[in-house]
Amino acid sequence: MSPSTAMVLVNAIYINSDWKHQFKKEKTQKKNFYLSKKEKLETDFMIQKIKKIKYAEINSYSAIEMEYVNSDFSLLFILPDESSVDNINEVVLTSERYNRICNSLRYEEVHIEIPKFKIESSFNLSQMLKQMGMSSAFSNADFSGISQNNNLQISQVLQKVFFEVDETGTEAAAATGMVFYTTALTQNSGPTYEFIANRPFFYVLKENKYNTPLFIGQFVKP
Predict the structure, then answer these.
(1) Which residue range is the domain that position 159 belongs to?
(2) DSSP state letter for 24
(3) Which of 96, 127, 178, 185 lies at 20 to 30 Å from 194 by C-alpha?
């Protein structure tokens, strides 16, 4: 913050929840994660078979929804098919695709292999928000509803994210801050499906009643 900083608004989310179906640590194994068809890295994979878990297959995507104990939230893993591994930067999780996957989830028996991972990152969202049409907030927007200072405008929007997935569950936290400154002037009876996330995939921390996404991330490299 600088001497001209007049206000900082912070929005924070923190979730630390255990899986409804926890992975056994003794079953965790070193396996290959494919960055491309020719490049791979070895990492720890959590492994289990769940007799009743929400699963979906839509075109070239498969998905599972890992539920938390006594929680209104879950973690959705979305796996593009193997053909996408060499052009993963072109794969986009659109809102339409996300909604179709959520609406197609059904309880099935699924063999699951998912890498353990931990992600920490910081983002300056200012430029992205300007490109999305919020440019006036950074210059001449009217903030009279929150301040009597007519020279108030946003200088930065910063986000800090921490996300960890292991055998027990998920720990996730995010804080987004806006810095203002003053201007100088069902029952399963079918086959066992497989969900083996040994290539780049999406993960979505979601609220279950309306499928509202709270976090969306992409795991591309251990």
Answers:
(1) 5-13+121-182
(2) P
(3) 96
